[in-house]
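Holo prediction — pyridoxal-5'-phosphate.
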Amino acid sequence: MNTSREYACSLDRNDSLKGFREEFYISNEKIYLDGNSLGLLSKRSEKAVLDILNSWKTLAIDGWTDGVHPWFYLSEKIGENFATLVGGISKELIATGSTTTNLHQLLASFYQPDGKKTKILADELNFPSDIYSMKSQLKLKGYDPQEHLVKVKSKDSHLLETSDIVNAMTDDIALIVLPSVLYRSGQILDMQAITHAAHERGILIGFDLCHSIGSIPHELSKWGVDFAFWCTYKHLNGGPGSVGGIYVNERHLGKEPGLSGWFSSAKEKQFDLEHDLTPASTAGAFQIGTPHVLSLAPLIGSLSIFQEAGIEAIRKKSLQLTDYLIHLIEIELEDFQFELASPREHQARGGHIYLTHPHAASICKALKYEGIVPDYRIPNGIRLAPVALYNTFEEVWQTVQTLKRIMLEEHYRKFENTRGVIA
Ligand SMILES: *Cc1c(COP(=O)(O)O)cnc(C)c1O
């Protein structure tokens, strides 16, 4: 591979997804490599928000059933658009809640300690919010999280091994919750093999897709995964606080959820206003109250982009971008103590890469000063996410050139090696 700028530009010219970049609001002064924390605004999302505001403005209460996007059915309609992204069917999907509230709902529904099976299996690298949620649900059932939350250990503090996960599936485990892609190292877990092993042992399993949805394809139904949940403001570009998603395998549908509300109801029964719930026969049953319509709106636009681009094409370009980034880092930054903590094999690498460096926080600040937006993750990680829908190979090239200059000229030493408020 060639390290010239011209080569990067030739990759951009041959990129079949290049037209999508124009759909997004992109600052000319910045290179944005943080789309795995907060995706960029697309013009289609902006329009969808304005359409929803207009239906409120002109229809008031009738917006629930009239207008271009009737609000009463919007969560189900958006849910259908998750089907190709996660490998599920319409009735298994619903747009609702947030990652953490969805996990609470799913734990309340699927964590049913029985006899010897009382424990939840997670991993020590998971995002804290998921762990807090599991601890709360254990406490609500009267269990001590110290004893009943089991965490699979990582040998190198970046990656998890399938065999370690399977070995932790002892006969006191009732339920497993794991991420699809680890938020720091970007490792993709082998969801198919892990699900198979869990089911062989009579254990239910769910995955947190926050860092994988919109970035890699999934086959949840084929793999037989029991449930999954995710946010939509990362790779799916739904905007800050946009409504999340739930997948529940069809074999579990038709039951009352752990946490019910009037939106858990079968749609045709909801306005009968009875005190006995008739739950929806779809994943819609996992909704609780009135949908956050204004935070659903951007998804109408952003998911249409994913339908058009196709997740397979997105994944292909994403791997090309991260391959190229890794390659340039190895050549251009070999003298500067960076370590790649992400897997190299394609089947185990998600949509971002994670570098460690003793001065990671200072280096991230120096990059931001230079107009490049990475994110820093405690204790010593730099996450870089070149996003297939809107980043270019030339931006990747420029990023590595800038990093090299920051290191050679020791610019990073001007910045304190501590984290800011959010990164
Ligand atoms: C981003 C992320 C969250 C965030 O949870 P919210 O409820 O959406 O704030 C939770 N878990 C993981 C693994 C994440 O990556």
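READOUT: The chain is about 35% helix and 10% strand.
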